[in-house]
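Next up, sample data.

:::
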Amino acid sequence: MVQERTLPVFQTAGANITREEGLMLYEDMVLGRAFEDKCAEMYYRGKMFGFVHLYNGQEAVSTGVIRAMRPGEDFVCSTYRDHVHALSVGVPADNVMAELFGKVTGCSKGRGGSMHLFSAEHRLLGGYAFIGEGIPVALGAAFQTKYRREAMGDATADQVTACFFGDGTTNNGQFYECLNMAALWKLPILFVVENNKWAIGMAHERATSQPEIYRKASVFGMPGVEVDGMDVLAVRAVAQEAIARARAGEGPTLIEALTYRFRGHSLADPDELRSKAEKEFWFARDPIKRLAAYMTEQSLATQDELKAIEHRVQDVIERAVKFAQESPEPDPADLYKYVFAEDDP
């Protein structure tokens, strides 16, 4: 079925992005798309194992939110669809690809794989295999920021946490419990719902009594915002406002980004449940093509400049695959390493 819910309107001409900002957003989304396409290729060639969930189509959400945050300072908590979130926070493509290959040079030392990417350096709090797992973790990160600032007098503690999850997760208890605590304590956190219309094979409209997820924020007295998740400029504008509120001590925001995954739930999913008409409706809203059109129409970039970015990204991806292939496997003698906290030598 074609999505019947009306998408929110955002006038991108009023976004007032600079040429540099536009090129940065475009490169980040192209990197995410190219990385995921290469993952599919490597998976089908038997280079990756287990479940691999790709992000194609949803790039505007990751880029729009994360690239509005402070790199290396603010916190991001992901889901099992976490590759592109990791790239957006700045984890090198080499280390993300190596993790997917199960190599020791991966960002989780080859122990996490596709669904468990982590980087303390980049404040990536992890990907999580079970839905809703990351929400309490993100809540804890936001709480420690507020505690450090208000209870310990640390004036530098103004970090914001962004927590990503899907529409299916909003029917789980962790979602409601954590929204309640975040609102009660006015925590600096963004709850970002990537509503791609499907919870594996369950259509969103069939699974919830209130399909408009952003409206659920009102129960907790927090702002709830609906945004076109296929428009990176719309997502960025909403995120910037929510981040500013959080950093100013004004509490959390629930952001519902209406988006769509262009592939099946995972690479093991034949994707036979979604109709051709529905897919075509969303494919026509490709966020990368939309930004490219905006950039050229507004004379912020030429087609040749955008092509140059695409070629540069492809080089990054090819180097990442080479790095992953040539990296060593984890040493079996280190099987129990990283299970518990260890003192630095």
Observations:
- The radius of gyration is 20 Å.
- The chain has a mean pLDDT of 94.
- The chain has one domain: 55-297.
- Residues 19-44 form the longest helix (26 residues).
